[in-house]
Amino acid sequence: MTIEERAEQAVAYKHKACNCCQAVLFALKDQTGLDDAQLLAMASGFGSGMGSMEGSCGALVGAAMAAGLRLNGSGTSRAARQMSLAFKDACGAVTCRELKGVRTGRVLCACDDCVRNAVRIYGKLMGLD
Prior knowledge:
Largest sheet: none
Number of domains: 1
Number of strands: 0
Structural class: mainly alpha
Shape: globular
Distance between the termini: 8 Å
Strand content: under 5%
Order of helices and strands: HHHHHHHHH
């Protein structure tokens, strides 16, 4: 499966009652070594910017979680930083509140595009097609 197919699959998961973090992890499931129930549970608190829109976008968190699992923790901080910088470049911000324009009234990046971009960024960093 190409990274673009994974990105679209993540959006489909998002529309099937997954939060952004869960959707990204489900699209990258083969990278994690975890089953559906584990992924759902692990990512359940990371919707809406860690439940309050104040935290990092759940899609970005999901990509960082997948990287940590794939890298077995070795080099994960560096990978997460690279993903965060690339995500900010692609989406305009990293916090849910900023992305959704809560204070400004101007949406920087819709959830579907945040999910797509997180999967694409993960794919590029991890060398997936």
